[in-house]
Amino acid sequence: MARRPAAHQPEKWQAHRLDDHGQDSRALRGRQAVRTEARSVRPVRSLTISAESLVVVRGALRRFGERTALAGADLTARKGEILVLLGPNGAGKTTLLRALAGRTRLDAGTIRIGGGAPDERAVRRRVGFVPQAIALWGHLPVRTNLEILGRLAGLDRDRIAAAVTDALAWSGLADRAAEPVATLSGGMQRRINIAAGTLHGPDLLLLDEPAVGLDPVSRQAIHRVLEGLRDRGMGLILTTHDLVEAEALADRVAVLAGGVVRAADTIPILVGRLFGADQEVLLMLAADPAPALRDCLRTTLFSPTNADRIWVGRLRGGLEQLAGLRSQLVAAGADIDELRVRQPGLHGVFVELTGQVPNE
Predict the structure, then answer these.
(1) Confidence (pTM)
(2) Considering the domain boundaries, does residue 34 fall inside one?
(3) What CATH number is attached to the domain comprising 325?
(4) Which of 182, 244, 302, 310 is the most exposed place for a label (fewest CB within 10 A)?
């Protein structure tokens, strides 16, 4: 890989308030409101992907002094799919991505890409890496940037010309090729950043937060580019903190916590495995819970998160059970700010596997 210069729609909620008799009074605000969400389900794409794994990670261990970034992570990925790495800060996502790119060495464990190790020259030719930072020369035209990076990647003149022309076409930037990179929007610069990582025709493309900080229109343009590369047969592994983005892009997700992969599969399979027929309940308290309330929450299938006043639980038996659950919590001393009820999705999977509430 060439060395480069340093450089949705909101969820719809229906809000309900239960009165003292458990009836719905349709209040939209205030304490003890109960929300139920109508979720749209992303259709499952019919995948045409090789059964043979392009990437196999086994027991990946990486320490930085006293801190363990990877604690025995296992992962597989295939060509023709987008695999999204999720997890809270410090979960090991970026370290795993850099290890796959051959930019950090493991202390133990193995990584195989197409059967070889990431630091082998033949393997490095099969891998593209797109950093989060815009790694381009701002004062140079788009085409010149790509031509220089093609040379740094070891391509000959004819192959550079063909690769640059192709990249400008699929990135939608052919008409901006003569303009300096610095004059383009952030979304366009990120598309060029992605194009630069693919000039040598990799089988695997690694991307660190490829759409971070972009407006919705620019983000959608990035998504179309990534889906186009996937549809060409390339395998993509990317990190993001945005669950909406992950739901839109991922063929599979891998959820990391504490330096290990807690689970990896399609979102519907993970939801079914973790929740079955249960619904997800998000409880927000107005005050820190006392020990007796904590015990009650645990016995009623709630789990703590990284925020002391936010607990996540399950509702079994349908919404008719909600009033009884609320009464039980109030009797145990809960000062309820809000109860949210929804069909579980990626948010619930994330909380269930990491014990943390993602930033939304």
Answers:
(1) 0.81
(2) yes
(3) 3.30.70
(4) 182
